[in-house]
Design goal:
Elements: E1 2-9, H1 21-30, E2 38-44, E3 47-53, E4 66-68, E5 71-79, H2 82-89, H3 100-109, E6 119-127, E7 132-137, E8 146-149, E9 153-157, H4 160-165, H5 175-184, E10 198-199, E11 204-209, E12 212-218, H6 232-250, E13 257-260, H7 265-277, E14 283-289, H8 298-308, E15 311-317, H9 319-331, H10 342-352, E16 358-360, H11 365-369, H12 373-379, H13 411-420, H14 427-453, E17 458-460, H15 466-472, H16 488-497, H17 514-520, H18 522-530, H19 533-538, H20 541-549, H21 554-573, H22 584-589
Parallel strand pairs: 13-14, 13-16, 14-15, 16-17
Antiparallel strand pairs: 1-3, 1-9, 2-3, 4-5, 5-6, 6-7, 7-11, 8-9, 8-10, 11-12
Length: 591
């Protein structure tokens, strides 16, 4: 787990062009929080690579860049099957690093090198002999990677803010992405909210030479084809084997690890499998809230932890702590995701870092196994009440708050819908694939990455694994959704292997009481948000004030949260004002 960055310059104007050392230094400094354990760089001709390290595997010899012949590599994330890659391919590795096998595979297989990798990764390889730079990102998009095509060439980094801090790109909002963010809480596709900065897409491998993109190829996270016939018994056996294999790989670490535990089925399954695979008690962490009546998972999680013999730690996220740290939390979301789950995730990471450097979590279980209620709606034809996902935005029926109704905000989702509607896939499979394409990498996984990396913690997601996807995605619909309940196969697996999880209880959605918190400070907060330059561009100040006063309502609270997030995000990432320890109110009030 690390931060990576670099440059590859065009040679046409000046054959002797070399990357500016100050630019490389700024890139590295901007990513220091991702890798507090060390830094390294490689400069050869027109190419520069930079790396900041969070040491997880091979603490002694795993520093980067890694070198093999004329090739050099920097990587972010973990390649979990690095031992198998060494053995199966008879690779002569000089270190114990999980990122060295991909370097040797690149020398042998070229751009196909990532096809054997199993893990979460963003890799950059410089091949001096071919005068090429190759970038590769894992198929689920668990680890981030961004590029900027400049007049001088191409720059890349693990976070957009590094490209801005280095002076390579000016921070300017792309209006289409802003509409997406306000309506859906995340942005879609390759283009980010910053003009001039784009994402390397999940599963994409890009070849660059002379400062230009030469070739792109992409590896899918999900298998092709429709449902595969199977019995429930066969499916349960295959899922058990795949989950054990995935959790076992995701536990590979030379530092202490634990897990985030909610009261739901996904983290319960991870806990159950970790209990099976570990002799020592599993370290588990759960967050709750100080708002009466708010959904609080601590009691349920404590019961699961007790049944599994886990060492369980809980935290209370209070309103006072939220207002104190929210500018700092939002500052970490340079690629913005206005998901209120950033709040407990950030506080959990801060607590976990006192004891561990790695945590496993249940992200991806709903997407892979069919857990969301919107999937059941998508399965029905329209004349029976069926509807496509994400057809309503946060400001629908609240358009008067905005100066202009947001337009085109669903275009990215519509394009993804068309792309994932492959032959043979059912409506349920298409809805799952849609979430895997955008919602997962650009909201849930982005949230996990930024909130954990802010504290030097690595997050791992065993449900997002090729072996799990191969077993679960092509299950018949009836093994995913049955009796108006999603994740049927997972519930049945828990019934057999961890009945304390009570897996057939009705699903309780995860919520954070942002409406209650905002409502308690509505008048004061609304005036501050309404006066922000970023908000004034898009919203009517008097309507913003009224919205925040009404934030106790569900629809109003959700929209108010989006505007509050955007106000804080814009202040940090567009206006360039650092939080520097200021609380929410003083940060928004300062001029």
């Amino acid at each position: 787990m690390c931060g990576i960055a670099g440059l590859i310059l065009k040679q046409g104007a000046s054959p002797d062009a070399t990357p500016d050392p100050l630019t490389l230094q700024r890139l590295t400094a901007a990513l220091a929080h991702r890798g507090p354990d060390g830094a390294g760089h490689h400069v050869a001709g027109s190419v520069a690579l930079a790396h900041t390290r969070l040491a997880i595997i091979d603490l002694a010899t795993g520093d980067q860049p890694l070198f093999a012949g004329p090739a050099a590599l920097v990587g972010n994330g973990e390649v979990y099957n690095y031992r198998e890659l060494r053995q199966d391919n008879q690779l002569a590795c000089a270190t114990g690093s999980d990122c060295e096998p991909p370097l040797h595979l690149f020398r042998r297989d070229g751009l196909a090198f990532a096809e054997q990798l199993r893990g979460m990764y963003a890799l950059a390889v410089h091949d001096r002999a071919a005068r090429q730079l190759v970038l590769a990102r894992d198929p689920f998009g668990i680890k981030p990677l961004y590029i900027a095509e400049l007049r001088e060439g191409i720059a890349f980094a693990s976070e957009p803010q590094a490209l801005i801090a280095a002076g390579l790109v000016r921070p300017k909002v792309r209006a289409e992405a802003r509409h997406e963010l306000l309506q859906m809480q995340f942005t879609t596709g390759a283009e980010t909210i910053f003009e001039g900065i784009s994402r390397v897409l999940p599963g994409e491998t890009i070849a660059i030479a002379d400062g230009r993109v030469l070739e792109r190829r992409r590896r899918s996270a999900l298998p092709e084809g429709g449902p595969r016939p199977t019995t429930e018994a066969e499916a349960l056996a295959a899922f058990d084997a795949a989950l054990q294999d995935s959790v076992d790989l995701h536990q590979r670490s030379d530092v202490p690890y634990g897990m985030f535990l909610s009261g739901g089925t996904d983290s319960a399954a991870v806990l159950a499998m970790m209990r099976r695979l570990n002799d020592a008690p599993v370290r588990a962490y759960t967050a709750g809230f100080d708002v009466p009546g708010a959904a609080d998972e601590r009691e349920r999680a404590a019961a699961l932890a007790k049944a599994a013999g886990a060492r369980h730690e809980t935290i209370t996220v209070t309103e006072a702590e939220v207002w104190k740290h929210l500018p700092e939390i939002v500052a970490g979301l340079d690629d913005p995701a206005a998901d209120y789950a950033i709040i407990p995730t950030w506080f959990l990471a801060r607590r976990a870092r006192q004891e561990v450097k790695v945590v496993l979590s249940g992200e991806g279980g709903d997407e892979i196994l069919g857990g969301y209620g919107r999937y059941r709606a998508a399965m029905r034809p329209w004349w029976l009440g069926g509807k496509a996902p994400r057809t309503r935005g946060a400001f629908d029926r609240l358009e008067q708050v905005l100066r202009q109704p947001p337009t085109g905000w669903r275009d990215g989702i519509a394009a993804a819908e068309a792309a994932v509607a492959l032959p043979g896939r059912t409506r349920l499979m298409a809805a799952q694939a849609l979430d895997v394409a955008d919602w997962l990498p650009n909201d849930l996984l982005l949230k996990l990455d930024r909130c954990l990396m802010a504290h030097g913690v690595e997050g791992r997601t065993p449900f997002l694994d090729s072996a799990i996807a191969e077993v679960a995605f092509r299950l018949p619909d009836g093994l995913k959704v049955r009796n108006r309940a999603g994740k049927w196969l997972l519930r049945e697996w828990l019934s057999r292997h961890f009945p304390a999880a009570e897996p057939h209880r009705p699903k309780q959605g995860f919520t954070v009481p942002v409406g209650a918190w905002i409502g308690a400070q509505g008048e004061r907060l609304g005036a501050l948000v309404a006066a922000q330059p970023g908000v004034m561009e898009v919203a009517r100040p008097e309507k913003v004030v009224a919205l925040f006063k009404a934030a106790a309502g569900k629809r109003e609270g959700f929209a108010a949260w989006h505007l509050l997030f955007y106000a804080l995000w814009h202040r940090r990432h567009i206006e360039g004002v650092m939080p520097d320890g200021a609380d929410t109110f003083s940060y928004l009030a300062a001029r």
